[in-house]
Structure formats: structure tokens, C-alpha cells
Design a protein that fits this description.
The structure holds two protein chains of two kinds. The termini of chain A are far apart. Helix content of chain A is 55%, strand content 14%. Chain A is α+β, with helices and mostly antiparallel strands. Chain B has a four-stranded antiparallel sheet. Helices cover 57% and strands 26% of the residues of chain B. Chain B is of the alpha+beta class. The chains are: A alpha+beta, B alpha+beta. The interface between A and B is large, with 38 and 38 residues.
């Protein structure tokens, strides 16, 4: 038969186990929250990066369109013109887009052209 | 007997409410809160910087567009500019050596407004064009 002291030790180790399980649960919740935070941060940085890149491309397009309206612009830009030709949308982050002051279109070779107004 | 029970209770209390474990938990939560605040601040800063870069370049493009229209003898339809760009406010101010020559605006000021100032020749004299959009 177990002595009262052994019974108390068994109860204590059970409580320690429960406490450890509770700690693990708390750590799991923290890790999950940290993962969500990191993903949100990564998404924000990616969006910011796409926005800056798109703003530079829109600047380049408007500048080139103003100087050389009849020539084809650079290809392989990350921005995709909207069907109206007045917006440039990022192919990296769908929510990011920039307005354009010139109407543009893309040909089959991926070259951008300024449409006449 | 009473002494043994008292020791057992004390040991159980130590197992359950260990000061080290509690301190580790507090530290974990504090570190997590700091990390979370840091990430939030960094992402807000990155998005703010991107918005500023985008707004500055947009106002520069708007000023070029306005200059091209003005030099071509046309007028700038600010409401049309707002409709096309999705902006809330746009203004054009022309000033000469004697002071303000003209000022036009459309929309209402809200949020960040970015301005670009350009010099150009107007009627043989240098004038300053300030184009704002936001």
C-alpha cells in the first residue's frame, strides 16, 4: 500500500505535468500568434515593395510617353495595364495599382505602347 | 503529522506556482508583445514610406501632365483627373513674380497631399506651377 508521502508526490507530479501541458499550450498559442504576425508583416513589406516598384514604373511610363509618345516602351515591367489603359496594376500584389496620365496598352511581345487620346 | 502535511502542501504549492516558471511566462509574453509591436511599427513604416514615394511620384507626374496641357493651350480638368486617379483632392496654383496668378482645385483635402513645384515660361516670363494631388 502506498504511503501518504508517496501519494502526495504522485499528485504533485501529476500537477507538474498538467502545469507543463498548460505551459506548452500557452507557448503553442504564442507561436501561432507570432506566425500570424510574421505573415502579416511579410505581406505588408511585399505590398510596400510592390507599391514603390509600381510607382517608379508608372513614373517611367508617363515620362517616356510624354517624351516619345509614338515609340514602344520598355518590356518586362511588373505592372499590368488595366483594360482602360489608365491604370497600372502590380502582378506581385493584386491590391496595388497606380493611375496613369497616358493611356497605354501591351502588345503580344510584352511591349507597352502609348495609345492616342 | 501536522508538520508532514504542512511540508507536503508547501512542496505542492512550489510545484504549481514556481516563481521561475511564472517569470519565464511573463518574459515570453513580454518578448512576444515587443516583437509584435516592432513588426507592426516596421510594417506601418514600410507602408507609409511606400505611400510617400508613390504620392511624390504621382504629384510629379501630375505636374508634367498639367504643364503639357497648359503649354499646349488646353485647360486641366481637375475633376476628370480625380475621377481617373481615384484621388480626393487636386489643385493647381500658378504664381509669377508679382504673386499668385491663378488657383484652381477640386475635391476636398483628406489624408496625405503631395505637391510638386515647377518653373516654366509663361508669356515670356518665368512662372511657378504648383501641382498638388492626394
Amino acid at each position: 500500500m502506498a504511503s501518504p508521502r508517496e501519494g502526495t508526490r504522485g499528485q504533485s507530479s501529476l500537477e507538474a505535468l498538467l502545469a507543463f501541458a498548460a505551459l506548452l499550450c500557452a507557448l503553442a498559442v504564442l507561436a501561432h500568434a507570432a506566425k500570424a504576425q510574421t505573415e502579416a508583416f511579410s505581406s505588408s513589406v511585399e505590398q510596400a515593395d510592390a507599391r514603390v516598384l509600381l510607382a517608379r514604373e508608372a513614373f517611367y511610363i508617363d515620362l517616356s510617353a510624354g517624351i516619345m509618345p509614338r515609340s514602344a516602351l520598355q518590356r518586362n515591367l511588373t505592372g499590368v495595364p488595366a483594360s482602360s489603359g489608365k491604370w497600372l496594376a502590380s502582378n506581385r500584389s493584386g491590391a496595388v495599382r497606380e493611375p496613369l496620365f497616358h493611356r497605354i496598352s501591351v502588345d503580344a511581345d510584352g511591349r507597352y505602347h502609348v495609345q492616342s487620346e | 503529522m501536522g508538520d508532514t502535511m504542512c511540508k507536503a502542501n508547501s512542496w505542492r504549492a512550489r510545484a504549481f506556482w514556481s516563481i521561475d516558471a511564472a517569470f519565464a511566462l511573463v518574459l515570453s509574453v513580454a518578448m512576444f508583445a515587443m516583437l509584435s509591436a516592432m513588426l507592426h511599427s516596421a510594417s506601418t513604416r514600410a507602408l507609409g514610406g511606400a505611400d510617400e514615394a508613390s504620392g511624390t511620384l504621382l504629384s510629379a507626374r501630375f505636374s508634367s501632365y498639367a504643364l503639357a496641357r497648359v503649354e499646349g493651350g488646353g485647360e486641366v480638368d481637375l475633376q476628370s483627373v480625380l475621377d481617373n486617379t481615384g484621388g480626393k483632392y487636386a489643385s493647381l496654383r500658378v504664381a509669377g513674380a508679382q504673386g499668385e496668378i491663378s488657383f484652381a482645385f477640386a475635391g476636398e483635402k483628406a489624408g496625405g497631399i503631395y505637391c510638386t513645384q515647377r518653373l516654366y515660361v509663361r508669356g515670356g516670363r518665368i512662372a511657378k506651377l504648383e501641382a498638388c494631388i492626394g
